[in-house]
Each structure stands twice: as C-alpha cells, then as structure tokens.
Specification:
- By secondary structure, the chain is an alpha/beta fold.
- Helix 1 packs across helix 18 and helix 11 crosses helix 12.
- The longest helix is centred in the middle third of the chain and has 36 residues.
- It is elongated and about 110 Å long.
C-alpha cells in the first residue's frame, strides 16, 4: 500500500470527515456528490490513481478548492483504513463490487471505530440483512459504555436496487423523473403555461423557464431560487402568477404497483396450458429431414410387408409386424420357417442396418432443435404497446421483476441461457427470446415495430447503442432507455439520438449516477427515497420524524413549508424499529413496515411529535433541516463535469 497523495489536514480535525473505499464509477460519483454538492471532506481509497476511475478522483484531489484526498491501496485492509483516518471518521462507504471485500472491510472498520456510520454496497440481500444486524449490535454494545447516544447506523444498499426504479419508470411511465414509495409510483410532470390543475397533482415542485426533464443526470448548481429562471419549491402565489408565462413541475401520482403473480394464478387452466405449451415449436418434428428419413423407413416397411403377405399365409397385421421386428432386430431367427421367410428376414435386417442410424440421427437432431427453439417464447404478431427488455444480468433481472408488477406486457431478449434472470422470466411466464438482440431479425421477433418502449441493460455500452439504433430503424417513435457506464458518453448519446429523432424519447442512464445520491444521503445519516433532477438543480425526497425538529413540530403543514427549502408532501404515524435490508419497496431497496402515509393531508393539519413526514427538499434545505446550520454556499466553485 502506498499513499501517493497526502492529506492536507489530519482527518481527526474534521468533524464531517468521510471515507470512500471503491474501485469503480460509483466511488467516483459518490466522491463528487459528497464534495461538490454536500460540501464534505472526503478521502477516497482505491487501487490505482491511473486505472479505471482513479484518474477522475485524482483530478478532484488536484483542485486546490476541493477537500478530496486520495489514498492508493490494493485492498481496504486495517492498515489502509487506519491511514485513511477511520478512527475519527463520521462515515465510511464501501462500494467494491465484491460482497466479501465489503463485508471484511466493514467488520474491520466497526472494530476500529464503533461510532462510524457504515454504508455498504452489497448484492446478496440475505447476507446484507445479517451483516446489518451484526454491525448494529456491535455498535449498540459499545454505546452502552458511552455517556450519550451515537449515530453508528449501518445501511446496506445495492446500486441495482437504487437505479432500477428510475430505469423501469423511464420505460414504463415515460416523461418525467419518478419516485416509488409504499408500492405507489409518483412522477414529476411539466404542466404547460396556463394548464389547469389535474386531479392527480399533489404539489408544485418548481416553476420553470425552459425544462428539459430528460437530460441525463443534470448538475446541481441551481439550488438557489431564480437560477436560469427556475424556482424550486415556490410559494403558492409565485406558482400561480408565474404559471401563465412559465411551465410548472408538478408531483403527480401515477399508479400503484401490484405484486407479480405466477401465470397459473392470473390465468385460467386452459389459458395457462396454452401459454405454457402452445408456443412450443412442434413443427420441428415434421421437418423435411425428419419426414424424409421416416418416409424411407415407411416405404421399406410397406414393401417388406407386401412381399411377406404374398409368400406367407396369415393375417395382414402379421405381415406388417414381422418385418418391423426384423428391421429392429427384435425377432427370433427364422430357422424353422420357409426359405422365403428367411430371405425376407435377412433383407429386413440389412434395411435396418442402413436406415436405423439415419432415424436415430434425425430424431436426436430434431430433439435438440426442439429443445433450443422451445426456450424461446416468441410473441404473437398482434402484440402491441409492450416493453422490450434486453439483458437479464443483475440490473435486468431486477428490472424485469419490477416491470412485472405493472400492467405492461414484457418481451425479454437474453443471449445467455444461463443468465441469472432467465429462470425468473420463465417463472413469470413472460415472452423470452434466447437470442443476440444485435443480430438481424431478433428485434423484429420481439415485435419492436409495435412496442411502446425499449429498455437495454446489457454490460456493453457499444452494444447497447447498437441495439437502440437498430430499434430506431424499425420503430422511430419507440421510447428508448439504455444503461451506459460512462457518464459523458451517456450525455453525448442522448443528445445525438434526440437530434436524429426529435419526436422520440431517448434516455441514457448511468447506474453509478443514479445510485450515488442515495449512498451519499445514507453516509450523512439520511434516508432518501429518491432524487429528482430539475434543469441544473435537484430535489430530494426523504422521510423525517417530526419529533425534535422545531421547524416542523407543532406547526401546521402550511406553516411548516419553507420557500425554496422544503415542503411536506405526506404525513404518517411513527413506529419503533429499524427498516430491514431484506424489504424491497423504496428506491434504495428498502420498505417501511409502518402505516401508510396520507398523501393529501389538509394544509391545516398540525404536525405532532409522533408523526413522520415525507419531505421534498433542496440539498440546502435538507442540510438546514437536519443540522440546523447554514451550509456553505453551493456556488463556492464550479461543479465537476457531469
């Protein structure tokens, strides 16, 4: 381990010192998020400052106005953690793609500093649940020796869980960023100037001068009101008077998800049999090759049966039965029978030697072809308004599970029969094509020409772009959403496709960019349900207990509103207990087991100490609400390139 860049100050001197250990785009994006947006002092531990995203982190470090430090270590062992200052750090994020590496580092960090807040990236949910309980118990045991309470929470997050809802909603819902809470789906929708309120509108989020809600991962520099003519969280008078010259961004309730059901439950028995077996390629068994081989065998049997009937006395069935036994070498030698019968038996034996290998080969080829073809569940030509999903890896599998909780028909394309999501696709009874989506004709088999949306989630950026461009040729209006690893490439692709197809919607999303805000919020001890980009700004949706907040407790919902800072959206009662990492309903892969929120509370409703509220805030507003301290201005320096 070598430290190539030295700390400008001792980590112990920073009350908000935070550490990130990772080696991919998520660590880089998280460093940007904490440094440029949240104003935190950050140390990043990564294997190399030149390979992968090390160069981007090194660029943050070289900026004299940035407090980002870089520590190079092959692995996050005890020496690396101590050198990064974990003994006095406020929070540690472990973002490696290997669950085992993150688990080991988390256990080490908790033993070194029982007070540190841990945010751990983990794909295995069951392991994450056990790890969270173990680490929280360790922190609780140590807190019994302290005079006061400590904030040593453990948060298990998955980049897949945090990114998938946005990807799915972009394909299923369309325009406008989305939010999912308690199984309900909300989205930000721009109402043109002069448009009357809709029954589904919940609150005004912003008044806009010229919104491009689909720009990939816009920055967060416009947190102050009036920037670029946009005001976040305006008061009622501003929202009303400006709506005639500017659009308004409204929070709209879209739909309520339902749990996916197995095909046998949601269809009648005959329909299930038809869906299960009706699509199988039975015609393979009457292919030209199989027909020719069995035709030759049939002709030989007929000829031998005719000759047998002429030279031997007996019923007709015996004249057919005896040649079949001889061809398949199943009959006894005809030593005691006539010479004619003996000759026919020898001829039938030679016919069997010549024909049977062909019969076996044709049958085996047909069986293999049937098995391969039956893996595909090709949709009918009449299918309309469906969603085509390409890729059943980690992200694609979870996207499929969420898509199947909606009322949309899904067609899946995956070239690897052993991919993790293939079994789920078959269990859910969706249309499945085990083909290469980039191959000619495969998208046509998925009925891309009549589809509503295309969601491309393979691991190859270039292949994702190729698939989207091929789909555009067949259906220029299809709503295309693709996952791209490189943020700059994602922005360039989105702009280019919009220019080429101005009437169509194209979104390119980086998983690390979608996941980073939730990881950053967890490091600061805040449970963020979602982040909604608004031009060059962003709004955060979070759950807060009213107790202990003088700006909320004892105030009416109307009085608790703070212009440009926060607004109360929903109210619900509090209960004791932590959220479980094994639940799955919010953006970060969590679900509250608490009573449901009221999303249309009266404005005169007074907030009590036993209430919980869903707030929409600016980043500045959340800092003020949670700390009571005015954060440093967001305009302190230019934000790193998105």
């Amino acid at each position: 381990m070598t430290s190539t860049l030295h700390l400008r100050a001792e980590p112990g001197q920073r009350s908000q010192h935070m550490i990130i250990c990772g080696d991919d785009g998520l660590a880089h994006r998280l460093a940007q998020e904490l440094d440029a947006v949240c104003g935190e002092a950050v140390t990043v531990v990564l294997p190399s400052r030149r390979e992968g995203h090390g160069g981007g982190v090194a660029a943050l470090h070289r900026d004299p106005r940035s407090p980002v430090e870089l520590l190079v270590s092959a692995r996050p062992d005890e020496q690396a953690l101590r050198q990064a200052g974990v003994e006095r750090a406020a929070a540690l994020a472990l973002t490696y793609g290997d669950d085992q590496v993150n688990t080991t580092a988390a256990l080490l960090a908790r033993s070194i500093n029982p007070h540190v807040r841990l945010v751990i990236r983990m794909f295995n949910r069951e392991r994450g649940r056990h790890l969270e309980l173990l680490l929280d118990r360790a922190a609780a045991a140590h807190s019994s020796y302290d005079d006061g309470l400590i904030d040593a929470s453990t948060t298990i997050l998955s980049d897949a869980d945090t990114a998938v809802p946005e990807l799915v909603a972009a394909a299923a819902v369309g325009h406008g960023p989305t939010l999912q809470v308690e199984g309900k789906v909300f989205r930000g929708v721009v109402r043109p100037a002069g448009t009357p309120p809709h029954a589904t509108d919940l609150a005004t989020l912003a008044v806009l001068s010229g919104t491009h809600m689909d720009d990939p991962q816009g920055g967060d520099s416009a947190e102050t009101p009036g920037t670029n003519g946009t005001q976040l969280l305006p008061d009622t008078a501003t929202a009303y008077h400006r709506q005639f010259t500017h659009g308004r961004l409204m929070l709209e309730e879209v739909t309520q998800h339902h749990a996916p059901e197995s095909p046998s439950r949601r269809r009648d028995y005959r329909g299930w049999l038809r869906d299960r077996f009706g699509h199988l390629p039975w015609r393979i068994f009457v292919s030209r090759e199989v027909t020719a081989v069995f035709g030759v065998l049939g002709v030989a049997v007929v000829l031998l049966a005719t000759v047998t009937a002429l030279v031997e006395d007996g019923p007709l069935w015996k004249s057919v039965y005896l040649p079949l036994l001889d061809i398949f070498t199943m009959g006894d030698p005809a030593t005691e029978e006539s010479t004619a019968r003996q000759v026919l038996q020898l001829i039938a034996g030679f016919v069997g030697l010549a024909v049977l290998p062909l019969v076996v080969a044709a049958a085996m080829n047909a069986t293999l072809a049937f098995r391969a073809a039956s893996a595909n569940h090709v949709p009918d030509a009449a299918l309309r308004d469906h969603i085509v999903l390409v890729g059943l890896g980690k992200i694609g599998t979870r996207a499929l599970a969420q898509l199947c909780t909606t009322d949309h028909t899904v067609v899946v394309i995956e070239r690897d029969p052993q991919a993790r999501g293939v079994a789920l696709a078959r269990e859910l009874g969706v249309h499945l094509l085990l083909e290469d989506a980039a191959a000619p004709g495969v998208l046509d088999l998925a009925r891309i020409g009549t589809s509503r949306s295309l969601l491309v989630l393979t691991h190859d950026d270039g292949e994702n772009l190729d698939i989207v461009m091929a789909a555009r040729e067949s259906n220029p209006q299809v709503r295309a959403v693709m996952r791209l690893y490189d943020d700059d490439f994602a922005a360039t692709v989105s702009r280019t496709l919009r220019a080429g197809y101005p009437e169509a919607l194209t979104r390119s999303r980086s998983v690390s960019a979608l996941a980073a805000p939730s990881f950053a919020a967890a490091m600061m001890g805040r449970h963020v349900l979602g982040v909604m980009p608004v031009e060059r700004g962003s709004l955060l949706f979070t759950v807060v207990d009213v107790a202990g907040h003088p700006d909320l407790e004892g105030r009416s919902i109307h009085a608790a509103f703070k212009e440009h800072e926060w607004r109360v959206l929903a109210v619900g009662p509090t209960t004791t207990g932590r959220q479980s990492a094994s639940s799955t309903d919010t953006l970060g892969g969590f679900r509250t087991d608490r009573p449901a929120f009221n999303w249309r509370p009266p404005h005169g409703r007074v907030l009590r100490h036993d209430d919980r509220v869903v707030l929409v805030t600016t980043r500045r507003g959340l800092d003020i609400l949670m700390t009571g301290v005015q954060p440093r201005p967001t305009g302190r320096r230019p934000r790193p390139a998105q």
